[in-house]
Amino acid sequence: xxxxxxxxxxxxxxxxxxxxxxxxxxxxxxxxxxxxxxxxxxxxxxxxxxxxxxxxxxxxxxxxxxxxxxxxxxxxxxxxxxxxxxxxxxxxxxxxxxxxxxxxxxxxxxxxxxxxxxxxxxxxxxxxxxxxxxxxxxxxxxxxxxxxxxxxxxxxxxxxxxxxxxxxxxxxxxxxxxxxxxxxxxxxxxxxxxxxxxxxxxxxxxxxxxxxxxxxxxxxxxxxxxxxxxxxxxxxxxxxxxxxxxxxxxxxxxxxxxxxxxxxxxxxxxxxxxxxxxxxxxxxxxxxxxxxxxxxxxxxxxxxxxxxxxxxxxxxxxxxxxxxxxxxxxxxxxxxxxxxxxxxxxxxxxxxxxxxxxxxxxxxxxxxxxxxxxxxxxxxxxxxxxxxxxxxxxxxxxxxxxxxxxxxxxxxxxxxxxxxxxxxxxxxxxxxxxxxxxxxxxxxxxxxxxxxxxxxxxxxxxxxxxxxxxxxxxxxxxxxxxxxxxxxxxxxxxxxxxxxxxxxxxxxxxxxxxxxxxxxxxxxxxxxxxxxxxxxxxxxxxxxx
Length: 545
Description:
- By secondary structure, this protein is an alpha/beta fold.
- The protein has 21 helices and 21 strands.
- Helix 15 packs across helix 21.
């Protein structure tokens, strides 16, 4: 039997029924009824200091759990502040529900009204679905379908806007349960076509993307690669599927310069793209302008215009697709191509070559990351911000497990690492492992206000800031194209004062020989730690690639 309730209570009840257990956000006056409904529910609300940080936190929750969290804002500027983090979730295929308030329906669609913009239209391009709820009788169905969309193949964000008067209205409806949706099985004829294509290849190479991580298919991909002796390259977000010492690991694709892996890619006569999203790396570059044919395995079809020559395509759950391919190729084994062996050997040589001396006060990025790697356990989680440091992390920090390193890559928006690490540390606080965010001094300032959120939550984590005093990636791009650059240098705060202001522990590292101990001390600290150091990004080994 249905019981009378407010529209806000029905709204929150629908989210709770759909499995939402956490909402990050900054409420406004128009969210009052929604906030009271959250307070009376079992959903946890995490108050943040900026809506963008809330959206990044919800995005990270989705990446880590495979389930959507929600982020909440008021109407107008609160909603526009959410947008970057919501787009990040959609372009990196993380499930998320964005909730915004809206004005009374009596004025929401006037040509001009205070703080009113068309939020449904605003969020449409960066979500899988965007709805303004205008009818109480349709609310339960719209919410159930929207939340279901967040985890459908190739996950992403949805947006729901609740007008203030509908939130207050008395309604007489109940939430709808959400049935489980099993992964579709691959079509037998598609599997046979893929197997035939792979058999014809002499030098196949597996390109693993973030879809492998989302599908928890790393072990099955490893089995396939080992049973066929086919080398594996990964996107930034799929790094760690094979361990560093695995002879088939060719490491990451995606540097802005010609890297060792590029030689192995050009030598391949077939690329087996597994869970690869074209947004991770341009397919034209991956396939040498479309010259190298592709066998693609994905949970959902990709666009026809992605820019590669598709020899065969399997659509379905990756686990089932990989098992089918492995069974069909049982007994086949390829010789590892010399170009693949050479690329791996050259990369290992780079990864083991030191550049920084013990007493140096400015450290090469590669040596910082080698030191970080020695301190990592498989239970740790690492975040990278966006900037020059992101490219270094992707290439030179080799994870101990798949999914250990989270890099904002699809939208590549600056500012995710700090709030993302706060959300992860909060989410994982009862589990083993430590959370580390590696930020440039440009990236970290994008959401510095949410250092207070970490203090309030009491989350132990380490935020390592690499100082170089400018927007280095933009500078390098301008110099490559014009042999000069526009003014891109900036100043930084006094990091000790900043840490003290937010009640964080500050650990400056002024001598390279002290970095390992500093990382151990940060790990042992029972609260948030801000570690700062001076970095140099020039790479004397680059010309060897």
